[in-house]
């Protein structure tokens, strides 16, 4: 997605769309994404990290194309299923205990950070309300804190009737097309 945003070469956007479609065709069954597959054999367990990653990816695809709305909404609902009694769990599969999801951001975001950011971006793109949040521990939850920055208004939310080239916008921008705002209910 990001090479497309800044290089404006449509082959990168097309490749991102192809990646999602391939992932959906091989590893998704409805809004359930299974963790892995090899030679047409699918590991039939779902994890928060996988669902949240796909939702986040879909928010970027939607932001760029205005498409993938139904898929984004399906994965939004799926990610919500991993929040049980106000706590995030790592797996929804019956063979696993309800293990609390990891909150520590290693070099990659934790499952919780990924889920929180994906949900927030979906909320912004679909014009749903979101509440401010408190920052968490620096260095241990940096990716989570990026979501808090967005939530608390430290990112630009650009609403415009036509797509603005991202090379002309600050890096901390989320763009929503005005026409989509009023045509989607």
* Order of H and E elements: HHEEEEHHEEHHEEH
Shape: globular
- The value of Rg in angstroms is 17 Å
| SS elements, strand count | 8
Structural class: alpha+beta
Helix content: 40-55%
| Strand order, largest beta sheet | 1-2
Mean pLDDT: 88
Strand content: 5-15%
- Major sheet, described briefly? 2 strands, antiparallel
* Uncertain stretches: none
> What's the end-to-end separation, in Å?
26 Å
Number of domains: 1
Task: Please count the helical segments.
Answer: 7
Give a structural overview.
- With 185 residues, this protein is an alpha+beta fold.
- The protein has one domain (2-35, 43-183).
- Helix content is 46%, strand content 13%.
- The protein has helices spanning 2-7, 10-27, 48-65, 69-80, 111-125, 142-151, 178-183, and strands at 28-29, 32-33, 36-38, 41-43, 83-84, 87-88, 156-160, 173-177.
- It has a two-stranded antiparallel ribbon.
- A hairpin with a 2-residue loop joins strand 5 and strand 6 (87-88).
- It is globular, with a radius of gyration of 17 Å.
- The model has no long low-confidence stretch (mean pLDDT 88).
Task: Name its key features.
globular, 8 strands, two-stranded antiparallel sheet, 13% strand
Protein topology:
Layout: H1 2-7, H2 10-27, E1 28-29, E2 32-33, E3 36-38, E4 41-43, H3 48-65, H4 69-80, E5 83-84, E6 87-88, H5 111-125, H6 142-151, E7 156-160, E8 173-177, H7 178-183
Parallel strand pairs: 7-8
Antiparallel strand pairs: 1-2, 3-4, 5-6
Summed up, what is this model?
The protein is an alpha+beta fold and 185 residues long.
């Amino acid at each position: 997605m990001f090479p497309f945003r800044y290089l404006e070469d449509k082959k990168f956007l097309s490749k991102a769309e192809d990646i999602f479609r391939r992932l959906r065709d091989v590893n998704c069954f409805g809004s359930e994404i299974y963790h892995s597959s090899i030679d047409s054999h699918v590991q039939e367990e779902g994890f928060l990290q996988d669902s949240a990653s796909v939702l986040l990816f879909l928010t970027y695809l939607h932001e760029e194309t205005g498409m993938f709305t139904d898929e984004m909404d399906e994965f939004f609902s799926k990610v919500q299923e991993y929040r049980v009694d106000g706590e995030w769990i790592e797996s929804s599969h019956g063979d696993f205990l309800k293990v609390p999801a990891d909150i520590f951001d290693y070099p990659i975001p934790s499952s919780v950070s990924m889920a929180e950011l994906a949900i927030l971006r979906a909320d912004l793109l679909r014009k749903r309300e979101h509440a401010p949040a408190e920052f968490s521990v620096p260095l241990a939850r940096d990716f989570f804190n990026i979501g808090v920055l967005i939530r608390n208004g430290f990112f630009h939310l650009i609403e415009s009737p036509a797509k603005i080239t991202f090379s002309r916008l600050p890096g901390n921008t989320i763009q929503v097309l005005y026409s989509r705002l009023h045509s989607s209910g």
